[in-house]
Amino acid sequence: MAKANAFYAQSGGVTAVINASACGVIETARKHTDQMGKLYAGRHGILGALTEDLIDTSRESTADIRALRHTPSGAFGSARYKLKGLDENRAEYERLIEVFKAHNIRYFFYNGGGDSQDTALKVSQIGVQLGYPIICVGVPKTVDNDLPLTDCCPGFGSVAKYVATSIREASFDVASMARTSTKVFVLEVMGRHAGWITAACGLAAEKPGQAPHILLFPEIPFKQDKFLARVEATVKKEGYCVVGVSEGLQNEKGEFLADSGLRDAFGHAQLGGVAPVIAQLVRHHLGYKYHWAVADYLQRAARHIASKTDVAQAYAMGKAAVQFALKGHNAVMPIVVRVSNQPYKWKVGMVNLCDVANREKKLPRDFITEDGYGITAKCRRYLSPLIAGEDYPPFKRGLPDYVVLKNVAVTKKLKTRFNV
């Protein structure tokens, strides 16, 4: 009897280290060919399974798979696509099982955030209901760091390192020009409901008076008058003011300051840019010259300045996912468990997907200073180890040398097509 094959897919927004997790999955699977057959990847996430658009990872060289560890973004393509409940769209699940049966797939690895872990959980449940049991293991990933139970999420440490570095470098620029030019700089970072990335900006300020001077978290309702007063006081004292703001900043009514009115495939609000909103408030009420920037894709694509800790954890999560599956663990997800802060030590743990799916971990209130504009020492102790260490990619002709896989398609076996 042929050995069962495996399916791996990347989901949601990609990161600087999600391919390190892919590397961990594929390299580990290749070490266990006595137990597992081929490992297929879904082209553009779960869409690859629904449309039977599978990639044969065995066609990639050992060197190219190894190079995934230092290559950003999603090597197999990702997608924002949320499976509905079995009762709402049974056809999707029947299609998944049809494809898995056709290609003898009995292992399912889904690399993503909370919505993705919900998908992995649903697939594990419907496999039994539809008479085709399949082992499903989630692989954690999200720059937002908002998955519960795990100490941190692969992808976050590198974003944290990037935004802390960027806001520190920008603050030097502003400080040097402030007397005759720009006095306020605003950097917008990701984080719809959780302020972890915003908090990471605060790592750049190690002494009183250093930038960033103000952090605006989604967990703290924005009060315009209080904020403007703080900006004015900071400019008078320091000569300039640097602000880090979450894209998900909300007013006292709980409304996003930058809601575009659109929704993504997961039903989340599409945020239209809060940095210019904040900057215009400063200009209109205080008259200061300003500059603003939106880190946007740059923060999650910046593999050139990835955290060594983050890379190691991302790889470990992919490796553990395969190990868990081969031991028969189903509907679970590997997590990072912090053993100690000084020295920083961590290990791999395991949780049930039902305890992770669709749950969101926000920044604790005791990680934010009493005035709501900075991070506490406790927050700094938590964040600092996650950005530690450098893991530079190889460079060629002055630029990072990243791998582009061949992504050879697996021959389709089904006559039917599925439109998504």
Short description:
By secondary structure, the protein is an alpha/beta fold. The protein has helices at residues 18-30, 46-50, 62-67, 90-102, 114-129, 156-177, 196-201, 224-238, 275-286, 296-301, 308-326, 377-383, and strands spanning 5-10, 39-42, 54-56, 105-112, 135-140, 184-189, 214-216, 241-246, 259-263, 269-271, 290-294, 332-340, 345-352, 395-396, 399-400.
Please give a structural write-up.
There is one protein chain. By secondary structure, the protein is of the alpha/beta class. The protein has two domains: 5-142 and 304-359 and 392-400, Rossmann fold; 156-302, 3-Layer(aba) Sandwich (Rossmann fold). The chain contains twelve helices and 15 strands. It has helices at residues 18-30, 46-50, 62-67, 90-102, 114-129, 156-177, 196-201, 224-238, 275-286, 296-301, 308-326, 377-383, and strands at residues 5-10, 39-42, 54-56, 105-112, 135-140, 184-189, 214-216, 241-246, 259-263, 269-271, 290-294, 332-340, 345-352, 395-396, 399-400. The strands form five sheets. It has a five-stranded mixed sheet with strand order 3-2-1-4-5, sandwiched between helices. Strands 7-8-6-11 form a four-stranded parallel sheet, with helices on both faces. Strands 9-10 form a two-stranded antiparallel ribbon. Helix 8 (224-238) links the parallel strand 7 and strand 8. Helix 1 (18-30) runs parallel beside helix 11 (308-326) and helix 8 (224-238) crosses helix 9 (275-286). The chain is elongated. It starts with a strand and ends in a 20-residue tail after the last strand.
